[in-house]
Design brief:
The complex is a heterodimer of chains A (182) and B (347). Chain A has 182 residues and is mostly helical. Chain A has helices spanning 4-11, 15-37, 40-57, 67-82, 107-123, 127-137, 143-150, 154-177. In chain A, helix 1 packs across helix 2, helix 4 packs across helix 7 (143-150) and helix 5 (107-123) crosses helix 8 (154-177). The radius of gyration of chain A is 19 Å and the shape is elongated. Chain B folds into 2 domains: 3-51, no CATH class; 62-346, no CATH class. Chain B is rod-shaped and about 90 Å long. The chains are: A mainly alpha (182), B alpha+beta (347). The interface between A and B is large, with 45 and 40 residues.
């Protein structure tokens, strides 16, 4: 993902290297923030704050940790701590809303609905479950990498991911029952 | 193999975490169990959809957007390094400290701490019999109390030594006996609080980059976030030095050099910064910067700004003051005030 030599130069105080490094990771940082906070404006704020923190703290990055997990740890912490939303997460049982199928049943439109449904469903997950899903699917992280990023035990990562998928699957099945894709 | 175990296997298979053997076992079950087969289909479909979530990208370059802030961080770091290298009373000039407390509450609390100090002095008076030592300790404390209280009518001196009242009281209570017994000539409360405020340059940036909670000697409220601007050396120094102030730090200059600044994020913001040589104090309040001279006279009043103060600081030679305003829409503007010339320009 990122050249180790670039990281090393940045750590040793090469400002140009550090800026280049930030440019390389900004999309990854933003993408995580976007799916954690759920909207573009907060995602921009959170991602910028994360980049500033990385800029300031690069000296404290130790090479024994993977750089990408160190970066994701910073952005997820910011998103969870500072952009915590008051919106309560809805439990599976409560969620029985039915979506109208509307008039259109074309494949493309249905796919768009699905993506929207999934984002909405992710949004309803508790924060750490959401973070696990985002790192698994948007950053393509392994269980171990997720554990390092979120400072969670490996088994907790697995159980969060499994429970999150199960909950998402139930939510989406409800959407489908509502007629969108049934 | 029961359905619950198979569920676990199916989940792990989605992550490529299943051995061939485990996979064969799971599929044996799935073939015979309609419920698990349906679940397997749903999970696979879900996982595929998650993998296909839009790979969103930032609408603008985030690094470009934060470059000015990164420059500011570098400047502050450089300034802090300078201040830290010469950790003398006179070098604390460009400090700015944030605190959520309002000025008037600080003021009344400070009076209160003065009263407490006087009370402690009176109490000690009753139990001490050595007239010479007593005299010294009283004058020392009166001087300190006086310099603290007199700030009320003087904007310059209002940025004086007191931290919050509870901290000051604690220090009064703890420090008095020892000081009187061992070093009568040294004041106690005001000294220690003055000392504890001798911190290096900190620029409140309003976005959580500064952490006022890290200020030793002050238990004022803190904003969340990591302290990226103050060098660790200074924190050590200030924390250990309560109650061991050197006498010359009680001089009038010493008091004036102590800087406090505070921002009330919810109400009006109030941030203060004293120039390195102590001749000016810039105060950001009611959306504008006002620069006061050593005597507390307003020398320059800036334009009212829309937005919040993100950073501020004096030039090294104290001839101009720069501050950064963050607007509602996230953009930032930097202004420079030259108090001698009486000008304010946008950079």
């Amino acid at each position: 993902m990122v050249e180790p030599s670039l990281i090393r130069a940045a750590r040793e105080g090469d400002r140009e290297a550090l800026i280049t490094l930030l440019r390389e990771i900004e999309t990854h940082v933003y993408r995580t923030a976007y799916y954690l906070v759920g909207n573009e404006q907060d995602a921009m704020d959170a991602a910028q704050e994360a980049l500033i923190r990385i800029y300031s703290k690069i000296g404290s990055y130790e090479e024994k940790a993977q750089f990408k997990t160190w970066v994701q740890r910073i952005v997820t912490n910011i998103c969870i701590d500072k952009f915590r939303r008051s919106k309560p997460t809805v439990s599976i049982e409560e969620h029985e809303m039915v979506f109208e199928g509307k008039e259109s049943v074309e494949g493309e439109v249905m796919a768009a609905y699905a993506a929207k449904d999934i984002r909405e469903a992710i949004d309803r997950l508790p924060e750490h479950h959401r973070a696990v899903v985002v790192l698994r699917y948007l950053q393509d992280f392994s269980y171990n990498e997720i554990a390092d990023s979120l400072d969670l035990p490996l088994n907790t990562v697995k159980s969060y991911l499994f429970r999150a998928r199960q909950q998402l699957q139930v939510l989406l099945r409800d959407y489908q029952k509502g007629g969108v894709r049934g | 193999m029961n359905c619950q175990e198979v569920m676990d296997y199916m989940q792990r298979e989605l992550d490529g975490d299943l051995s061939v053997f485990e996979s064969v076992k799971a599929h044996e079950h799935i073939r015979q169990c309609a419920d698990c087969a349906a679940m397997y289909e749903r999970l696979k479909r879900l996982s595929a959809e998650l993998e296909n979530l839009p790979k969103v990208t930032p609408p603008i370059s985030l690094v470009d957007a934060i470059l000015p802030k990164l420059d500011e961080i570098d400047r502050v770091k450089a300034a802090s390094a300078d201040a830290g290298a010469t950790d003398l009373p006179g070098s604390a000039g460009t400090t700015a400290r944030t605190s959520p407390r309002r000025r008037n509450s600080r003021f009344s609390l400070r009076i209160l701490s003065g009263v407490v100090a006087a009370g402690v002095v009176a109490g000690v008076f009753l139990v001490m019999n050595d007239p010479d030592r007593l005299h010294d300790s009283i004058s020392g404390n009166f001087a300190a109390t006086e310099s603290s209280s007199s700030g009320s009518s003087d904007p310059m001196l209002m940025m004086d030594a007191s931290t919050d009242a509870s901290g000051a009281q604690k220090r009064f209570g703890a420090a008095m006996p020892a000081d009187i017994a061992e070093a009568p000539a040294q004041g106690t409360g005001a000294d220690s609080s003055a000392d504890s405020l001798k911190q290096p340059a900190r620029v409140p940036s309003g976005d959580g980059l500064t952490d006022s909670g890290a200020s030793p000697g002050s238990d004022t409220g803190s904003t969340e976030g990591e302290d990226v601007m103050s060098p660790p050396a200074v924190l050590d120094g200030a924390g250990d030095r309560i109650g061991v102030a050197e006498p010359d730090e009680r001089t009038e200059d010493g008091v004036q050099l102590v800087i406090t600044g505070f921002a009330d994020q919810k109400g009006g913001e109030l941030v203060e910064s004293v120039s390195p040589d102590g001749s000016y104090t810039a105060v950001f309040a009611d959306s504008r910067v006002v620069v006061y001279d050593r005597d507390g006279n307003a020398r320059f009043e800036g334009e009212a700004r829309q937005g919040s103060i993100a950073a501020m600081g004096w030039s090294e030679d104290g001839t101009y003051f720069r501050y950064e305003i963050r607007l509602e829409d996230g953009t930032e503007e930097i202004y420079r005030i030259d108090p001698a010339a009486g000008t304010e320009t946008k950079e």
